[in-house]
Amino acid sequence: MDQADFVHLVRLSEHASAENSRAYRRGVAAFAALGYAWVLGCLLLAGALVAWALPQVLAGRFRFALVWVLIAALGLLWTSLRALWVRLDAPEGLQITARDAPALFEALERIRRKVNGPPLHAVYLDGDFNASIRQTPRWGLFGGAVNTLTIGLSLLMALDKARLLAVLAHEYGHLRGGHGRFAAWIYRTRLSWLRLHDSMRGDAGPVAAATQAFLDWYFPRFAAKTFAMARQDEYEADRIAGRLLGREAAVAALIEVEIKGAWLQAHFWAGHWRAAAAHALPVGPYQAMRGQLALAPEPAFAREALRQALARLSGVDDTHPGLRDRVEALGGAPALPDWSRRGALGLLGEAERWIAHFDRAWCKDNASDWKQHHAWLGRVRARVQALAAARAQGSADELVEEATLRRQLDPQAPVRPLYELALRSRDGHLGALRGLVQTLPEGDRAARLQGLQRLWDAGGDQRWWAARTAVEELETPRPGLEHDAAALKLWRERHRQAQEGEARAWEELTQTPCFSQTAPHDLGAFELGEVQAELARCKPVVAAWIVCKRLREFPGRRAYVVFVELPGLPDDERYPLCRALERGLSLPGPALVLWAGESPTLQEIRAHARVPVFTR
């Protein structure tokens, strides 16, 4: 099923749920029963065939057709038993008990009684900024449920007790009585089908092929048909949290989690990994995280993070609604809250014990990556020193490179003079103009828009970034500045034009023959070294080749095609790996990553790209 058909079925399920909720749930139950009927039917058929064929084979009637029927029946029996006994992985993290954290378990018990939920079988603590509860089938499709709650240590650091309990009440709300039990059963069934669907992809043989064909037809339709129920279940869980802890606490928790989660990704983790420049051995993050999450986020960042979160629409790739829809459904205002003044670590009892445990675990898990990052930062520092020593004779490109690398070592590094020097060396240098805009104070709208106008007038491949940045600037309220509707309209139109150009460029990169309009790569020694280090960290890659791709849409843009050899990796894993490499490789331009397969073949890659840039 393609994405358009899936979206269509999701919309149909949403309309059916809105028109007649009871009829919709009956339809969901009937479709779920179809899957169960298929499993039982296969099991009964297999048992009947075995009961018929096995005695005849044991009696010495070795006819080919009879033996073939017995083998097929045994294969069908095995497949059916796998469907019945599919198991899910245990939660990650550290299991905690009431003896470890009595205050937390007392609070969970109060929530359980109020929502009329089932008991929890286990509570886990992990290092993520999240909380989740799940019912997993104990014995496959027909088994009982195991209820497991997982709480992130960083979430306990970020939220005060009331807001943390609002998050936990939301999670427990998924297990509430009545309709909640039905939704939880459907959720468990969805997990079982998903796991069975994934586990059988590599199976061969006619029985497995027939089973996989049924799953390929059934599972996407089951996921689409149950989507509206899962989405409504999220809203109902929010309402339960608001009823138990108060609407204000529930809304504030949603917004604070969104903004502080964005801050962790955008600032904390980047800053923590930069510490590898001074420390050869890994440093645990959670002790430092505790102090920083207790502080209010910087106002400009919080406003922008909230704006972006509110702009995200509720899609079909996630059953969770968007933040704006969740806040409005609770009757709250989508505004910055008063920040939590202290975390909820007190619910854990000996907080220092858990922080120390997760710091040690993080250091152990990330020791290899930390060592490689330490070496990379050392190379960046050496390159900066070399560029600084030759600055008097340096080109505009080298000045921009030095400024960029300095900002990688320290985002607050004073690099504005380097961009200005590059512009004096070459007026209209695109990289220098973009870097200069990024160093201007956020409150100086006039200077930022003037710089973005210069970048737009210079043409080239930075127009999309200039227009997007200008639109974001003009859409962001600034104290003492009036809304400029005319300028915003102008830049929105420019953004639309630039997006069309970017779409044409990406189509040119991805849709034209991979070896047309190519040339040997133009990477310098430092740039190539960084890409090689990143490829070395990607274990499935055993060899890689890089060529430049000349784009007619943007003749000055550095664009690349990267070919990787991934032996032993199935195609469904190769595709996401290549997309991740496209996002993660430190190439000075957009890249298309392809793997050696039917097209292009390894022989074609070797013939056209010649010498690999990386071999393991």
UniProtKB/TrEMBL annotation:
<feature type="transmembrane region" description="Helical">
    <location>
        <begin position="65"/>
        <end position="85"/>
    </location>
</feature>
<dbReference type="GO" id="GO:0006508">
    <property type="term" value="P:proteolysis"/>
</dbReference>
<keyword id="KW-0812">Transmembrane</keyword>
<keyword id="KW-1133">Transmembrane helix</keyword>
<dbReference type="InterPro" id="IPR001915">
    <property type="entry name" value="Peptidase_M48"/>
</dbReference>
<dbReference type="GO" id="GO:0046872">
    <property type="term" value="F:metal ion binding"/>
</dbReference>
<keyword id="KW-0378">Hydrolase</keyword>
<dbReference type="Pfam" id="PF01435">
    <property type="entry name" value="Peptidase_M48"/>
</dbReference>
<keyword id="KW-0862">Zinc</keyword>
<dbReference type="InterPro" id="IPR050083">
    <property type="entry name" value="HtpX_protease"/>
</dbReference>
<keyword id="KW-0645">Protease</keyword>
<protein>
    <submittedName>
        <fullName>Zn-dependent protease with chaperone function</fullName>
    </submittedName>
</protein>
<keyword id="KW-1003">Cell membrane</keyword>
<feature type="domain" description="Peptidase M48">
    <location>
        <begin position="154"/>
        <end position="330"/>
    </location>
</feature>
<keyword id="KW-0472">Membrane</keyword>
<dbReference type="GO" id="GO:0005886">
    <property type="term" value="C:plasma membrane"/>
</dbReference>
<feature type="transmembrane region" description="Helical">
    <location>
        <begin position="28"/>
        <end position="53"/>
    </location>
</feature>
<keyword id="KW-0482">Metalloprotease</keyword>
<dbReference type="GO" id="GO:0004222">
    <property type="term" value="F:metalloendopeptidase activity"/>
</dbReference>
<keyword id="KW-0479">Metal-binding</keyword>
<feature type="transmembrane region" description="Helical">
    <location>
        <begin position="139"/>
        <end position="159"/>
    </location>
</feature>
